[in-house]
Specification:
Layout: E1 7-9, E2 12-13, E3 16-17, H1 18-28, E4 34-38, H2 43-51, E5 56-59, H3 66-103, E6 107-112, E7 117-120, H4 123-128, H5 132-135, H6 146-162, E8 166-174, E9 180-191, E10 197-206, H7 208-236, H8 240-253, E11 259-265, E12 270-278, H9 280-287, E13 292-293, H10 303-310, E14 314-317, E15 320-321, H11 327-334, E16 339-345, E17 351-357, H12 365-371
Parallel strand pairs: 1-4, 4-5
Antiparallel strand pairs: 2-3, 6-7, 6-10, 8-9, 9-10, 11-12, 11-17, 12-13, 14-15, 14-16, 16-17
């Protein structure tokens, strides 16, 4: 059953009133315009009718106004329907946006020109370990790694001056647990109605696992290159000393390690460095323990000596790990070494090859198997 486009009603009718009719229409079909056409409506009654929701009133003695009154009421009703549709679409859009923002795994944020976060979604908890309320109102760079924070502080003023955003800016952040997370950031400038920049709105994606996987692939490729070059070196070398020197050099040049050293067991049951190549500060970690006895009693044992004594691979990851000396990670940090692996050499170990990395590395099972 179709609905009327407009309702015309007298103000006074036997047994029924126009105001009662208006009340029914407002309750059942408020979108339909209601016009009084009457010869008895007074000024006060007309004002009350308009206040109660009537679109217009026309006196019977002036029916020439009826057509324009109807047309105006229809235009107003159409405009109201359009506005209601827009408002409904806006509410639905806002709800969809809110659902997306609150369910996405990416960190969505907004900051002002003072770098203060004024909005963050709940994903920041999964990514950095902080509740949204703990991040709101804080400097947006406060949790960033110092070196990356310095980069942003250097670049951001130029972006602000140009009213430009950024895309896929890879930056490192500190998780609440102390670990480092790598986030890929994209942001757009937020402008006020006058076109002035008032802040940035962006989205950060956790790419830590991808970055680690890419780094691992590069490390494995370098290790394969070392092994290939070492195989050729074995055929070319004239003696063992030359081969050991070349092995250390290849580990640094082809493998990308910061330094490499080989220590050999002496007849006095000590270890001495016989071959080395790379960063002097890293190699000094070995040289400082030259001719140290393999008897660990009462001695702070560095990882390469433990590897020799136990004939097992010893890995020190990110300045902490399997070494027996609490001072070794601190010494590594002072030398600019982020990770180290000690590999026994020979079926019956006669020495140890120590590889030092300048960037954090995990040395997982696949890498260790290649290095054996």
């Amino acid at each position: 059953r179709s609905s009327p486009d407009v309702i015309l009603s007298d103000f006074s009718m036997p047994g029924f009133s126009g105001m009662h009719a208006l009340e029914i229409v407002r309750e059942l079909a408020p979108e339909i315009p209601f016009i009084f056409v009457s010869g008895t409506i007074g000024e006060e009654a007309a004002i009350e009718a308009l206040q109660q929701g009537a679109a217009d009133y026309v006196l019977k003695e002036n029916l020439r106004r009826l057509q324009p009154a109807v047309e105006r009421a229809l235009r107003t009703a159409a405009a109201c329907r359009e506005m209601q549709g827009m408002q409904r679409a806006l509410r639905e859009s806002e709800e969809r946006f809110r659902t997306i923002v609150e369910t996405t795994e990416d960190w969505i944020w907004e900051m002002d020109l003072h770098r203060i976060h004024n909005y963050v979604n709940s994903s920041v908890t999964e990514i950095l370990g902080y509740l949204p309320t703990e991040v709101m109102g804080r400097d947006a760079l406060e949790l960033m790694v110092d070196a990356d924070r310095a980069e942003v502080e250097r670049v951001l003023p130029d972006l602000v001056a140009a009213k430009q955003g950024w895309q896929r800016w890879t930056l490192r952040w500190r998780h609440r647990d102390g670990s480092i997370r790598v986030l890929e950031s994209t942001a757009h400038p937020v402008l006020d109605r006058a076109g002035a920049l008032i802040g940035y709105r962006g989205i950060d994606r956790d790419v830590t696992e991808r970055v680690q996987q890419d780094a691992k692939i590069r490390r494995l490729a370098r290790i394969h290159a070392v092994l290939s070059a070492l195989g050729n070196a074995v055929l070319r070398s004239r003696d063992t000393a030359e081969l050991l020197d070349l092995s250390c050099r290849l580990a640094v040049v082809q493998g990308g390690f910061k330094a490499a050293a080989i220590t050999a067991r002496t007849s006095a049951d000590t270890l001495t460095m016989t071959s080395s190549y790379g960063d002097p500060a890293a190699l000094a970690l070995i040289a400082e323990h030259d001719h140290l006895s393999l008897d660990p009693a009462g001695v702070s044992e560095p990882p390469f000596m433990e590897a020799m004594r136990t004939a097992s691979i010893i890995v020190t990851r990110d300045g902490s790990g399997a070494d027996a000396s609490a001072g070794w990670p601190a010494a590594m940090a002072r030398a600019g070494v982020a990770a180290q692996i000690s590999l026994p050499v020979g079926a019956e170990a006669w020495g140890v090859m120590s590889l030092f990395a300048g960037t954090p590395q995990t040395f997982d099972d696949e890498e260790i198997e290649l290095l054996r």
